[in-house]
Amino acid sequence: MSPLVEIFFSRLAAAPAVLVQVHSTEGSAPRDAGAWMAVFADSCLGTIGGGHLEHKAMARAHELLAGKGDAAPERMRMALGPSLGQCCGGVVHLSLQRVNAQDAATLREQLDTPRMPVALFGGGHVGHALAELLARLPVALHWIDSREGIFPDALPAHVVCEHSEPVQGAVASLAPDARVLIMSFSHAEDLDVLALCLTRQRQRGDLPYIGLIGSQTKWASFRHRLEARGFTSDELAHVTCPIGVPGIEGKEPEVIAVAVAAQLLQARQTKQSSAA
User: Fold this and answer.
1) Pairing of strands 159-163, 139-145
2) How much is the CA Rg of the chain, to the nearest whole Å?
3) Which of 33, 48, 110, 163 lies most in the core, judged by the most C-beta atoms within 10 Å?
4) Where are the beta strands (DSSP E) in 42-188?
5) Helix (H, G, I), strand (E, B) or coil at 145
6) What's the rounded Cα separation, in Å, for the pair 209 and 164?
C-alpha cells in the first residue's frame, strides 16, 4: 500500500472524509481517471490536479461533510475551459463520496495503485539514491545485494530487501514483468546477474527491461563476454547500457537516480501504449 493511502486510512480511523476521485475525462485534463484526494474537515490529502477544479471540488466536499446533501455518492461534471477558466480545455467527471472508518475495507483495493515490479541489484551510493526515489513512486521494489548490513533499517512495506549469496541466485525468484537494474559493487557480479537475466528472458520472456549501469566501454567488454557464452545479438539488444534518460548531465548518485527512474517510467508508458 502506498504511503499516501496508509496516511489516508490512519486519518480516516479518527475522522470522516469525502473521497473525491476522477471518474473519467474528455479531452485534455490535469489528471487521469483514478486520481483522488481525500477532504477532511481540517485538511486534504492527495490531488486531482490543483487549480480551480480542485478548489470547487473541495468546496463541495466540505458541504457534504457538513451534511448538506444526502450521503449517497454524487457526480460533478467540470468543463475546465467554460466553467473554470482553465486552459486544459477538457472535461473532468468527478465522483464524491462521504466515507468513514467502516468503509476502509472496501476502499483499500480501490485506491492503491498497481505497482510496477522493479528488481534492483546493488546497494551502493547509486543504489541507495535510486531505492529512496523509487520508494516514492508506484513501484514494488525488490532490492538485492550479496553483502550484509547494506540496507537501511526502516523501509516501506512495498520495498523488499534480500541478501543473496551468490547475488545472481535471486534472479529466478524475480516477479514476472520485473524491470531489472544491475549496479552491484563488482563487475563480476554484474556480469553473472546479467547473464542469468538474459537466460531467463530467453526461456520465459518476462523481463521487459534489463538495465546495466556503466559506460559504453563497460558494455563493449560485457557484450564480448556474453557473446562468448552464446548470447545472440538480438538477445543482447534487450540490454540497456548505459542506463538513464540521455541528455541528463551529472554523475552524482541522485542525478543518476532521477535519470534512471525517468527511463523506467518511459519504458512502462511505451509498453502500456503499445498494449492499448
Assistant:
1) parallel
2) 23
3) 48
4) 44-46, 74-79, 91-99, 116-121, 139-145, 159-163, 179-182
5) strand
6) 21
Q: Which amino acid is at 6?
A: E
CA angle 246/252/255 to nearest 5° reads 45
Domain 116-275 indexed as CATH 3.40.50.720: yes
Round to whole Å and give the CA distance between 65 and 13: 15
Every domain of the chain and the residues it spans: 3-111, 116-275
> What crossing angle do the helices spanning 104-111 and 3-12 adopt, rounded to 10°?
160
C-alpha cell belonging to residue 47: 490531488
Longest dimension (CA), the chain: 73
Torsional sign, CA 215, 216, 218, 219: positive
What average pLDDT values come out for the chain (276 residues) when binned by 10 residues? 82 94 89 91 92 91 82 85 62 93 86 86 96 91 94 86 95 96 96 98 96 96 97 97 92 95 85 52
pLDDT at 267: 80
